């Protein structure tokens, strides 16, 4: 099983869409919504549609966050990793630049970040190969400041209320990060983030001469200090907190792990539970971004779309998507629009249950 998981981490990273292998061996993803439990009826209308907001425009979209402006308005921020930018999207579909060089900030960005494709077969005229020097996961803290997992920048940064960008950390125990991936912020200011999988912020990945830490994991920054709170987390990728912040969920290699958060904000790794294991699911897409709704259900990217789980891991249903999902978040003023960044496109679907404001 371990060999299989390593293969998943190596070949399925960032969407299980590597050229002809994907086209020939992956079954067709269904459309619509699969109800696996009656509780789905309280979460989403079974006739709701995944609607394109911007279709076939981007190279590789990632981390998305809702930024409210007053009570009845706001906008979205999300990463375009290949372009090394954070883009702004208004609710009426207008797109603009929010930040340049959000990841790697040097002059030679084309030499940083591993090589990815847009998921199309090499014979397709629209097939593209590119590097990913840009940023990845985005979150907002309890003061509304934007927190950035910079991926190609190999750090955790924050944008102050004055607009100034500050690097919070780029290393742990004297070793530099390789590809800071996803991020979630606790109300008391503790910031959890992942580094991994596969050292993707580096051109040669974990064989790159500039490699730093030698394990994937979950890390915490708090009060100026950085600690590893869970080491050797295979494929460490997406993160989410339960509504009461007593549990942290961390995914990777098509698993979802559940950790108890201790009073000092570290994790009780000895009691870690695997609440989802989809390693044998044939549909495309890895466990990448995830979010928790206001009732505590987990909306997890994987396997043809978004798998919806209870906090105990019971699968309630699946929202199928046209492309493998990179990340997702609840937003719009009522937090009942689920926006989905899926490599080349952005989609949305309305839900009955809201997300958690500020996440």
Please give a structural write-up:
- The chain has helices at residues 2-11, 19-25; strands spanning 33-35, 51-54, 61-68, 74-80, 85-90, 95-100, 115-117, 129-131, 138-140, 146-149, 156-159, 165-169, 171-172, 175-176, 180-185, 191-195, 217-222, 225-231, 239-241, 247-252, 255-261, 267-277, 290-292, 298-302, 305-309, 315-320, 327-331, 337-342, 345-350.
- By secondary structure, it is mainly β.
- The longest helix has 10 residues, at 2-11.
- A hairpin with a 6-residue loop joins β10 and β11.
- It has a single domain (2-350), classed as Neuraminidase (6 Propeller), CATH 2.120.10.30.
State the main characteristics:
single chain, 359 residues, mainly beta, Neuraminidase, four-stranded antiparallel beta sheet, 2 helices, 5% helix, disordered N terminus
The rounded Rg comes to 18 Å
Poorly predicted residue ranges: 1-24
SS class: mainly beta
**Strand tally:** 29
* Gross geometry: globular
What is the strand content? Answer: 35-45%
How many domains?
1
Distance between the termini: 34 Å
Determine the number of helices (DSSP H or I, runs of at least 4 residues): 2
CATH topology: Neuraminidase
Instruction: Please state how the strands of the largest beta sheet are arranged side by side.
Output: 1-26-25-24-23
Portion in helices: under 10%
CATH level-four homologous superfamily name: TolB, C-terminal domain
CATH class: Mainly Beta
User: What is the makeup of the main sheet?
Assistant: 5 strands, antiparallel
Overall average residue pLDDT: 92
Second rung of CATH, namely the architecture: 6 Propeller
